[in-house]
What we know:
The complex is a heterodimer of chains A (685) and B (180).
Chain A: H1 25-30, H2 46-59, H3 73-78, H4 80-98, H5 105-115, H6 129-142, H7 157-181, H8 188-203, H9 210-213, H10 228-236, H11 241-256, H12 258-261, H13 268-283, H14 287-296, H15 299-310, E1 315-319, H16 326-336, E2 338-342, E3 350-356, H17 364-367, E4 371-373, H18 379-385, E5 392-395, H19 402-410, E6 416-420, H20 424-437, E7 442-445, E8 461-465, H21 480-483, H22 486-505, E9 516-521, H23 530-539, E10 542-545, E11 553-554, E12 558-559, E13 562-563, E14 572-574, H24 576-579, E15 584-591, H25 603-613, H26 622-637, H27 641-655
Parallel strand pairs in A: 5-6, 5-8, 6-7, 8-9
Antiparallel strand pairs in A: 1-3, 1-4, 2-3, 9-15, 10-15, 11-14, 12-13, 14-15
Helix pairs in contact in A: 2-4, 4-5, 11-13, 22-23, 25-26
Chain B: E1 2-3, H1 6-20, H2 24-28, E2 29-30, E3 33-40, E4 43-48, H3 49-56, E5 63-66, E6 68-73, E7 79-81, H4 86-92, E8 96-99, H5 104-108, E9 113-114, E10 118-121, E11 130-135, E12 140-146, H6 150-155, E13 161-168, H7 171-174, H8 176-179
Parallel strand pairs in B: 8-11
Antiparallel strand pairs in B: 1-3, 2-3, 3-4, 4-6, 6-7, 8-10, 9-13, 11-12, 12-13
Amino acid sequence: MGRKLDPTRKEKRGPGRKARKQRGAEVELARFLPPEPEAGRKKLSSHGRRRAAKRRLAAGRSPATGGGGRGPEIKEQVSPQKQKPAVKTAGQTPHRQSGFSDDNSKWLAPAKAKKTPSKGNNMELSSDGEVEESIWEMEEEEDGSSEEMVDDYGASSSEEEELLPIEKAALKQKADRGGLSEDDSEEEEEEKEAAEEARTQKMGQKEEESPDLQLNLDIDEQFKLPTNEQIEREAVEPPDLHIIHQRIKGNMEVLQDFAVKREEGRTRQEYLALLRRDMAAYYSYSDFLLLKLMDIFPLPELINFLEANEVPRPVTIRTNTLKTRRRDLAQALINRGVNLDPLGKWSKTGLVIYDSSVPIGATPEYLAGHYMLQGASSLLPVMALAPQENERILDMCCAPGGKTSYIAQLMKNTGVILANDSNAERLRSVVGNLHRLGVTNAVVSNCDGRQFPKVLGGFDRVLLDAPCSGTGVISKDPAVKTNKDEKDILRCAHLQKELILNAIDSVNAASETGGYIVYCTCSVMVEENEWVVDYALKKRNVRLVDTGLDFGKEGFTRFKDRRFHPSLKSTRRFYPHTHNMDGFFIAKLKKFSNAIPQAQKDEEPAVVAATPSTVPNTVMEPQPKKKKLEGSKVDKEQKPPQPALKKRHTLQAQRRPLKTGRPSAKTMRPQVPGRKKHRVKQKGQ
Amino acid sequence: MRPLTEAETRSVFEKLGKYIGENIQLLVDRPDGTYCFRLHRDRVYYISEKLLKVAASVPRDNLVSLGTCFGKFTKTQKFRLSVTALDFLAPYAKFKVWVKPGSEQSFLYGNHVLKSGLGRITENTAQYQGVVVYSMADIPLGFGVAAKSTQECRKVDPMAIVVFHQADVGEYVRNEDTLT
C-alpha cells in the first residue's frame, strides 16, 4: 500500500491490485490546494497557458486579481523556475503588444523588476519575492476571478498593495539589522537615507519598486570608518571576528572604488591602516608582515593569499622511478585504500593524495623506497635544473633530501651528486632518505655552503634551495606570521647573496652540458628573491635563462623604488592561492664565463698590478697575489675565454699546491662581496 | 676514509657471503665501473670509483655519508650488516623467505617471523642460514636468519619462530637517527 497523506481520511478503492496503488501527488495534494476555478476548463500545458494569457490580454485588461486559467497549481508551486521564463516572455509580450501608457503603468512597471533580480532562484521567502508572489497569486485564484493579468508578479495594483506591507515589514527589519551591523555614528539616519538613495539610484527605478530589491542591496550600504569611541571600545573587549570580517570586506570594497565610496575628509592611508589592523587581528599576522604583503599583492589577491595560508596544501608524493613506475605505484596504493590522482600534466612522477585509510608515510611501498613525500612545488626547481646523466651536481642546501633524490632519479644513478647541508641534525634524514630510495651516486657532506668552491668546485650544475624566511609556507608553519621582522628578512637576504655567489663560483662555465645554477626559495618576499638574483647578475658573469616551466607568475622587474634587470621576467613565482602549492620562487642562471668581474673602483690598482703580472710564471705572495691575479684576469677577459682559462690553470698550478694533489678546473676564490660596486659588463646578457 | 684492512675485508665478505654466497664478485666488478668498499667512522661504504674521487676532496670532519652504507663495525670489531644494504643483497640472494600479507606489518615492526606468517621458503635452506625476507608481492622487506631448516619448517607448530629478524625496512622510520 502506498503512503497516504491523511491517515484519517480513507479513500474508497475498488477491488484488485491496481486500485491499491497510490495515485500520485497530484491527486493527494488536490485536497489541499484550492480547487480549479472552472471545473469545465481543460488543464493546459505551459504553452497553452501562454497562448491563453495572450488571448485574455487581447480581450481586455483589468487590474483584476492575478493570472488564472493556468494549469495545475502544483506545477507553479513546485517549479517557480518554469514560471519565471514563462512569465518573462509573458511579461515581455504585453510590452510589445500594448505599449506603455498611464493606465497600465502600474502593472507594466513590475515587469522590469522581474528581469533585474538575480537568477538565484532560491526558494527562500525573504529573498525571492517571486515565490511569495506566486503563492499570493494562488490564493487569489481561490476567489475564482477569471480576468487575470499575464504576469503573476504583482500585475495588479491590489496585489501590489498586498505585497507591500510584507515588503515594508521586511524592509524595516533589514534596516534595523543594517543599523546594528554598521559602526555607531551620529549620521546613522543620513547614512540610511544615503544608502536608500544609492539603492534606488542604482536600480534606476521609482521609489515603489525599490522595496522589492532592497533585500539584495544590503551589501551596498556605505562603509564607514569607526570612530574613536568605537576603537577604544574594541580595544577593551575581546575582538569579535565576525564584525572584523565584515569590516574587512566593506573596507576592501571602498578601497577598490575609492573615489566613489570614500568618506569625505578621510585619507586612503586611514582606510589602509584600518584594513591592516583588522587583517592582523583576523588572520593573526604581524603588522610588519602585512605591510610587506600589501606591497607585493594587490588587495583582492591579498585576501585570497591570506585565506589560502589558513588551509594546508594537498599531500603530494613523488614516484621513485629508480624502483617503480608511477602507474604501478598508483595501483598498489589504491589497493591499500588510498585515494589519489596524477599531479598534473607538468609532472610525470607526481601524485596527489586526497585521502587515505593508511598512513602514507608508513606503507610498505614507502618503506621499500617506491615514493617520497614531497610538496608539489619542490618538484619544480629540479625540473628547471634538468640534470643530465653523468654530470657532477652540487646541491648546496639539500635537507631533507627530496630534491637530491629527484636529481638522482633523473640522472638514473649515474654521475655524482654532492649533497651538502650545514645542519648536521637534518642531514640524518637526508642519509636515511637517500638510502631508502636507493640512491647510490651521492656523497653527503656537512659544510657551510659558503665554503664552496673551496672544498670542491667545477660542477656542471648547482641547485641552491636557499634558507629563507618561509613566507611561502605559512600554511605549514603558522609561526612565521608573527616571528619574522625586518632584521630576519635582511639577514636571510644577506646569507642568500653570499650563497648564490658561492654557488655561481662552484660551477664550471666551460662544462659541455651544464653551466647552470638554479636558485630557489620558498618565500614570496622580493628582498629574498628578485633582489638576490639581481645582485648576482651584477656581481658575476651570469645571465638569466628560461626556467622551462610554462606556468607560474613572472618575477617582478621593478618593485617600489627598485629597478631590476629586465631578464628577471624569466624567473617564476608560485603562490598558494593561484597554484595550490607552497609559495615558491625559481630562477635559472647560466654562467657564461669563469672569470670573476672586478669592480670598476679597483681598476686603478688592478691596472697597475696588471703590468708586473704580465710576467706569467712568477710565484707571488698570498695577499697581493690575489689582486694581481685578478688584475691579470681582467686583462684577459678581453681576450677570448679559451686561452684565458688555460693561462689561469698554469698560474694556479704553480701558485699554490692544490689540496687534493690533483689539478682540477677550479675557479678563482671569489672576492669578498661588497668591495666591488660596479661590474665589467659582458656582452651576451 | 680509508680502504678496509685485510681482517676487516674478510669479516665483511664473510657476512655478505652468508646471504649471497659466491656472488660477491658481482658486487665488486659491475658492468658500469669498479666498486669498492671504504671505511669511514666505523661504517663500511660501498661506492664506485668516480664517487671516490669526489668524496676524497671533502674534509673528513665534514663527510657524512658516501654512496651506500653496508653496515658498521661494532666496538669489538664484529661486522653488523644494516638494512641499507638490502638493495644490493636482494637481487643476489640465494635463500629467500616470503611472508604472508598479514604478518608483513609485524615483521616491519621488528618482530621475528612465525610459522603462521610464513608464505614460501626456498628449498634446501639450512638452519641458521642467512635469508632475505620478501613480501608476497616480491618487495624485499629485510633480512634475517633461518631458525629452522625447510624440512623442519613443515613440521613445526604455527607459533614457532622460523626466521630471526636481523634488519627490516621499517627501520628507516623507526631508527632514522642511527642510520648515520
